[in-house]
Design a protein that fits this description.
This protein has 185 residues and is α+β, with helices and mostly antiparallel strands. The chain has a single domain (2-181), classed as START domain (Alpha-D-Glucose-1,6-Bisphosphate, Chain A, domain 4, 2-Layer Sandwich). The protein contains four helices and ten strands; from the N terminus they run E-E-E-E-H-H-E-E-E-E-E-E-H-H.
């Protein structure tokens, strides 16, 4: 499984200082031995991350939404030892069937506090599934911690990106497990 950090930041004593305002992005990818239809069915199940995450406790569609389509919204309930409990509302902002779907975490005043996506590419002997997420640009749950200890911003952001990557790896591992246990030829 590959992890790619797409981060931008300022140099500080020879190393990159990750800043929230630079909207750092993290991506995890894995080749899965299945077809695009199977992968699409799995990555568009909004409950997938709740099955795999110690943080995301539940997810449900909002209003009359019941599938991934632009404008559909869903609510997530989260619990984290350092950040506490909270809910988020997410909105699907882009869908390319069997290929890609993108959602944003709706922040204050209808801003975007994070953007998440799943992407599927045909690959030899299956598909390549990527999950990525980008922080910001609007404030999020990290904002209070960064404001309280600005000298630790890089460490706070890097730790959160790694937590996200751990969750993404768990999602892709779960998908692989489902595909591997499928009795179809």
């Amino acid at each position: 499984m590959a992890i790619a950090y797409r981060e931008f930041g300022s140099q500080q004593q020879g190393r990159v200082q990750v800043r929230y305002r630079d909207c750092p992005t993290i991506e995890v990818a894995e080749r899965i031995p299945c077809d695009a239809d199977t992968a699409w069915a799995m990555v568009t199940d909004i409950e997938l991350p709740a099955r795999c995450s110690p943080e995301l406790k539940s997810v449900q569609w909002e209003g009359t939404a019941d599938r991934v389509e632009p404008g559909a919204r869903f609510r997530g309930r989260n619990d984290h030892p350092a950040l506490g409990s909270w809910e988020t509302v997410c909105e699907v902002v882009e869908v390319e069937p069997r290929r890609r779907w993108v959602w944003r975490v709706v922040g204050p005043d209808d801003t975007t506090s994070a953007t998440w996506a799943f992407e599927i590419d045909q690959a030899r002997e299956g598909v390549l599934i990527r999950q990525w997420a980008r922080m910001g640009p609007a404030p999020s749950g990290l904002t209070a911690a960064i404001t309280a200890t600005p000298e630790l911003e890089g460490r706070i952001v890097a730790r959160r990106l790694e937590e996200w990557a751990t969750g993404m790896r768990a999602n892709l591992t779960w998908i692989r497990t489902q595909v591997d246990s499928d009795p179809r030829p």
